[in-house]
Amino acid sequence: MELTVETESRLTTVDVTDRIAAGVPDDLESGTCAAFVEHTTAGLVVQEDEPRLRGDLESFLRDLVPDEGHAHDQLDGNADSHLRAALIGPDVTIPIDDGELALGTWQSVLLVECDGPRTRTLSVTTVGQ
Hints:
By secondary structure, this protein is an alpha+beta fold. The chain has a single domain, classed as YjbQ-like (Jelly Rolls, Sandwich). 26% of the residues lie in helices and 37% in strands. The strands form 2 sheets. A 5-stranded antiparallel β-sheet has the order 1-8-3-5-6. A 3-stranded antiparallel β-sheet has the order 2-7-4. A hairpin with a 2-residue loop joins β5 (91-97) and β6 (100-101). The protein is elongated and about 50 Å long. This is Secondary thiamine-phosphate synthase enzyme YjbQ.
């Protein structure tokens, strides 16, 4: 399954949990679900979907990776986005139990946009046991 996600700012998070969960087939009782963002300047993370924490995550990435001063900036000015996405990683794998994503109480899947606004593509694959 393929998902398209629109982002609205350069560095932001978007909760994609429900959209990924919708891709779990009705007849799949147990297995795994893998989600992969098909871009080098965005990532996926399992984290709490709480606005202040999402803001903290964005601030943390800004503090950790400066906006400017990278060699790749000579090409297209977005080295910070690549570096931030490299820290996060492009994918998550989640168990499926009783036909649903087996996430903890406070866990959500967040797309972390590092070079927006953009249209992002996620591939979602499920495998049964």
